[in-house]
């Protein structure tokens, strides 16, 4: 039987306000445990929450960026459940009247463009964090994160594969980063994905029973988790079993998943309107004020990169999706004066090194100006493209600036005609048989045979010969 995968995502995006959603406590990452949880965050008797206007502004920015309707009346409810990292015994969230309604995000998968519909996005407070390491069979609780403002973005079940889910997640990450409403640091929990997965026979309209895997904070983990869960569900059904609606946990270290608990329904949480927070009314004037604050969004940036820099649609898509990569590219281009080479190096050597070390571009030990300077030295003939990779390695290791590395390692390209002629003469004299074969060969075979002599000359010059001049001299002397 052919099976169709159906996926919906719930994405928790931490808003990068200065303070929490209902208190004046800092949300800065990395503080000592339990030093940033105020009495308001803990809902101690006599305390009252006050809504953070900045969180509303950032949520409205997101809604406008995805062409959604902004809820004119935004209401908070209490979602009641017990968990050690939830000090209040409830989470202040939105249910019936969220701040963002509808909208869409367009994704690119291969050659195809697909629209993923957004059901809604609502404001809520984050919970604390349970710490399971270094406690010898116990868990520690850090409440610093409790009260951090979130928007939870809920998609329609429009996603049909792990590839589409990852494409959507990357697109959303790029969007909130470009808007400046989230720092995008997934390793710090700034974006977390809950993945709802079901399968059904191909052509069937009715949805299958879904499972929810919570708190994935890596695109790679999401992809593996989905593929593994889809395979598990199909195997269970084809073996005559049935899928249990449940919440599951994926372990990225062991690449295994397990059931946590049966999946709750809304009525299990006993939602009721928060008695401490009045409805927030958002008028058209406020929405228009926020609209004027919107920065250049990835789609507009992609079109500009194609027009301004002459990039291909593919290159422009990759470089414009992330605000960080876009800024890096433009800064490198401003320094080098060559958009195509800057794009090639960023998507090539830089990207490969980031992937190998599993770090983000913002964590890279090389900056845009250094990359631009490296490209300048290729363009002015100081170094060859091949030697540039050696300089890049040294830059990555922090061994100094471009010119210092070239000088210290003696990497300057040999462009002196006399020196190059001497190298060519020596190679020709040492390879008489190959020279005779070259001169006797048909013209269509000579370009390939020339590569032997180029290789020998480059070896003799320790890779520092100017390849353009070298080719010219070789052709003249071998004629």
Give an account of the 3D structure.
- With 479 residues, the chain is α+β, with helices and mostly antiparallel strands.
- It has three domains: 3-289, no CATH class; 296-409, no CATH class; 417-478, Arc Repressor Mutant, subunit A.
- The protein is 40% helix and 19% strand.
- It has 15 helices and 17 strands.
- Strands 1, 2, 6, 7, 8, 11, 12, 13, 14 and 15 form a ten-stranded mixed β-sheet that branches. It has a three-stranded antiparallel β-sheet with strand order 5-4-16, with no helix packed on it. It has a two-stranded antiparallel sheet with strand order 3-17.
- Strand 14 and strand 15 form a beta hairpin.
- The chain is elongated and about 90 Å long.
Short key terms for the protein model shown above:
single chain, 479 residues, Arc Repressor Mutant, subunit A, 3 domains, ten-stranded mixed sheet, elongated
């Amino acid at each position: 039987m052919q099976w169709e995968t159906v996926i919906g995502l719930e994405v928790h995006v931490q808003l990068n306000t200065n303070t929490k959603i209902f208190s004046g406590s800092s949300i800065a990452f990395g503080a000592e445990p339990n030093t940033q949880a105020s009495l308001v965050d803990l809902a101690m008797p006599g305390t009252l929450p006050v809504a953070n206007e900045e969180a509303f502004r950032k949520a409205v920015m997101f809604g406008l960026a995805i062409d959604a309707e902004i809820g004119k009346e935004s209401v908070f409810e209490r979602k009641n459940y017990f968990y050690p990292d939830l000090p209040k015994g409830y989470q202040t969230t939105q249910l019936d009247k969220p701040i963002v309604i509808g909208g869409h995000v367009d994704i690119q998968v291969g050659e195809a463009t697909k629209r993923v519909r957004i059901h809604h996005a609502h404001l809520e407070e984050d919970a604390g964090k349970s710490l399971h390491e270094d406690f010898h069979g116990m868990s520690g609780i850090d409440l610093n994160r409790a009260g951090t403002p979130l928007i939870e973005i809920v998609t329609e079940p429009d996603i049909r594969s792990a590839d589409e889910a990852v494409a959507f997640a990357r697109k959303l990450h790029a969007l909130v980063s470009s808007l400046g409403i989230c720092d995008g640091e997934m390793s710090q929990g700034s974006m977390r994905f809950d993945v709802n997965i079901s399968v059904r026979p191909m052509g069937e309209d009715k949805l299958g029973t879904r499972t929810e895997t919570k708190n994935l904070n890596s695109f790679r983990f999401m992809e593996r988790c989905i593929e593994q869960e889809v395979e598990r569900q199909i195997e269970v059904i084809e073996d005559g079993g049935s899928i249990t609606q449940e919440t599951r946990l994926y372990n990225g270290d062991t690449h295994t998943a397990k059931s946590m608990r049966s999946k709750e329904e809304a009525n299990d949480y006993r939602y009721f309107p928060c008695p401490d927070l009045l409805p927030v009314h958002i008028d058209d004037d406020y929405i228009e004020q926020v609209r004027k604050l919107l920065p250049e969004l990835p789609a507009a940036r992609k079109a500009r990169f194609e027009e301004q820099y002459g990039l291909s649609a593919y290159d422009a898509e990759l470089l414009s999706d992330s605000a960080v990569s876009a800024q890096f590219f433009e800064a490198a281009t401003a320094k080098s004066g060559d958009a195509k080479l800057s794009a090639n190096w960023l998507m090539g050597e830089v990207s490969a090194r980031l992937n190998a070390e599993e770090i983000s571009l913002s964590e890279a030990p090389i900056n845009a100006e250094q990359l631009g300077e490296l490209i300048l030295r290729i363009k002015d003939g100081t170094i060859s493209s091949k030697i540039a990779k050696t300089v890049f390695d040294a830059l990555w290791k922090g061994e100094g600036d471009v010119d210092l590395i070239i000088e210290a390692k003696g990497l300057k390209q040999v462009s002196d005609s006399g020196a190059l002629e001497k190298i060519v003469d020596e190679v020709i004299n040492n390879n008489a048989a190959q020279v005779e074969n070259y001169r006797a060969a048909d013209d269509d075979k000579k370009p390939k045979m020339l590569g032997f002599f180029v290789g020998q000359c480059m070896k003799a010059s320790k890779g520092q010969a100017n390849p353009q001049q070298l080719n010219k001299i070789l052709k003249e002397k071998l004629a």
